[in-house]
């Protein structure tokens, strides 16, 4: 086996191969033949799936500087060296089915990375620097132990597919609603109780899967015309019939802390704080999908929590698109009463329209 491996690598060096397949070789160490002398300067794709590797060499980027794709699926890798950030041309990195407990911040230096697969590891958190990957299109972190996603993930402006199934996530950062190219979001089998008010507002987002989040009872009405998966949601405390107010209360469990007031059709006066926030935001943004540059604001004294809220509002009215900050007017549409009832059988969730005023609340129509 060792002789065959040496011959394979030697031939790859001599013939300047761009692809090298070392899958199923029972390797427990990175082959030294790959790192000898000048390494494999022409190699672009390295496949080392289903071996028994526990680590990667620090000089990997030095010896394989032109790697574009690196596949390390199904090994026993525990840690990634900081030098991984030196693989300047790397576009695809597959570390699925390993034993990773920590992901080094240097992963954020892989500015050419387009596909990052980290499923089935033991990760409890992701480094904020992952938000520096502005070319990233696919991120799979399913089957880990994540309790949250980085707030800076919204900086991955090219992200199209985010998969985070089977983790311990209790919420979705509302900043993800600013990912305008996101087409598919999958967060099944977590601990979600609430979804961001704006989730589904982007026309690009077409597929949302939140199946088997048993405490999730409300879906933003923006998702009504999307392809959604919500089987097994809302089953922890079923409210199948009865008082609509009780159902609404169930659907609004886990509301963000920033929500200070729940408005109703009889509340005709918007609180002064909300009016001030809306005015400040309107004066400093020209588009609903442009980040508010706090440096352009006039000198004002606000708590950091409100400044953060100015940049990333709670959401936009589902009726008129008015930004909302501290008050929402919710309107409930039980899924069982909609045209989708026959598609989603094992669920008790409801669609919730979040409006900015009693007037919008009265006039909102789920199908209009």
From TrEMBL:
GO cellular component: cytoplasm
Keywords linked to the UniProt accession: Leucine-rich repeat, Repeat
The keyword Repeat is annotated on this UniProt entry: yes
TM region positions: none
Domain Disease resistance R13L4/SHOC-2-like LRR: 106-190
Protein name: Leucine rich repeat containing 28
Pfam families: LRR_14, LRR_8
Superkingdom of the source species: Eukaryota
PROSITE patterns: LRR
Species of origin: Sander lucioperca (Pike-perch)
Gene3D superfamilies: Ribonuclease Inhibitor
Organism lineage string: Eukaryota, Metazoa, Chordata, Craniata, Vertebrata
Keyword Repeat: yes
């Amino acid at each position: 086996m060792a002789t065959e491996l040496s011959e394979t690598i030697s031939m790859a060096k001599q013939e300047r191969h761009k692809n090298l397949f070392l899958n199923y070789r029972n390797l427990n160490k990175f082959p030294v033949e790959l790192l000898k002398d000048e390494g494999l300067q022409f190699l672009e794709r390295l496949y080392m799936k289903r071996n028994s590797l526990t680590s990667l060499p620090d000089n990997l980027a030095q010896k394989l500087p032109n790697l574009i794709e690196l596949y390390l699926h199904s090994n026993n890798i525990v840690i990634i060296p900081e030098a991984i950030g030196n693989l300047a041309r790397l576009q695809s990195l597959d570390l699925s089915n390993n034993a990773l407990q920590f992901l080094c911040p240097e992963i954020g230096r892989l500015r050419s990375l387009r596909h990052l697969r980290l499923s089935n590891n033991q990760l409890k958190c992701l480094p904020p620097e992952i938000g520096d990957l502005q070319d990233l299109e696919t991120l799979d972190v399913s089957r880990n132990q994540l309790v949250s996603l980085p707030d800076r993930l919204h900086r991955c402006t090219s992200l199209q597919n985010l998969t985070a199934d089977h983790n311990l996530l209790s919420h979705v950062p509302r900043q993800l609603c600013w990912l305008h190219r996101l087409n598919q979001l999958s967060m099944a089998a977590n601990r979600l109780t609430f979804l961001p008010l704006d989730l589904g507002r982007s026309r690009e987002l077409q597929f949302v899967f939140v199946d088997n989040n048993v405490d999730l009872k409300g879906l933003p009405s923006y998702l009504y015309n999307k392809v959604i998966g919500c089987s097994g949601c809302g089953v922890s405390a079923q409210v199948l019939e009865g008082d609509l107010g009780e159902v609404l209360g169930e659907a609004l469990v886990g509301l963000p802390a920033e929500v200070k007031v729940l408005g109703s059709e009889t509340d005709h006066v918007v609180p002064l704080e909300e009016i001030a926030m809306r005015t400040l935001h309107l004066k400093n943004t020209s588009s609903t999908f442009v980040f508010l540059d706090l440096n352009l604001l006039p000198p004002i004294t606000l708590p950091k929590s409100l400044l953060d809220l100015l940049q990333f509002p709670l959401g936009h009215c589902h009726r008129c698109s008015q930004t909302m900050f501290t008050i929402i007017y919710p309107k409930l549409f039980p899924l069982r009463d909609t045209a989708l009832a026959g598609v989603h059988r094992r669920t008790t969730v409801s669609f919730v329209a979040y409006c900015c005023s009693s007037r919008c609340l009265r006039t909102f129509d789920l199908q209009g």
